[in-house]
Amino acid sequence: SSLLLSANSLTLLNEVKIWSKIKNYELSNLFVICGEGLLATRDYFPSTSVADIYINFPDPWPKNRHAKNRLIRPDFLSQAHRILLPQGSVTFVTDDLGYSEWTINAFQKDLRFQSAYPPPFYKTEKLDYGTSYFEDLWREQGKIIRYHQFIKKQT
After folding, report:
1. Within the chain, how many helices (H) and strands (E) appear?
2. Per annotation, catalytic residue among 43, 59, 110, 128
């Protein structure tokens, strides 16, 4: 199964839409956890239980004093590594160039992962990925979307 970590705060309307899609498409491998990504990975998922993690447009917390609130931190990477199956991946999608660079640096420092893409370690188009509300919104505003993928190395 895969884990999708999306917006930091879902509205009730968004939650209802997601639950409707789960029911209408009979998706048995998708559920919603309203909470912080680090706590969700730490508290809800056993070791080696997730094939892939998808993180779409997380809050970049652009001010330096708020950077401690970013999802991509060493403690989250440790939990991601713990719950991923061998050769599992973390896909990270953002329109924020600073958060993109932060993420690349964090994964490069963590020797348990390797980028699926050669330098500069992201793609700006990924045709097989699908779209989202935020992707459509940011593209309309002329922002560049960066897709990153990091693979859990075999130990």
Report:
1. 5, 5
2. 59
The conformational region for residue 44 under phi > 0 = left, psi -120 to 50 = alpha, else beta, is: alpha
pLDDT at 10: 58
Residue 19 has pLDDT above 90, yes or no: no
| 128 is a catalytic site residue | no
Q: What is the pLDDT of residues 132-145, one digit of tens each?
A: 888 888 999 999 99
Mutual orientation of helices 97-109 and 74-83 as an angle, nearest 10°? 60
**Rounded to two decimals, what is the model's pTM?**
0.86
User: Which residues are CB-contacts of 66 (< 8 A; sequence separation ≥ 6)?
Assistant: none
Q: Is 30 exposed, middle or buried (0-12, 13-18, 19+ CB in 10 A)?
A: middle
Residue burial 91-116, b: 16+ Cβ < 10 Å; e: rest? bbbbbbeebbebbbebbeebebbebb
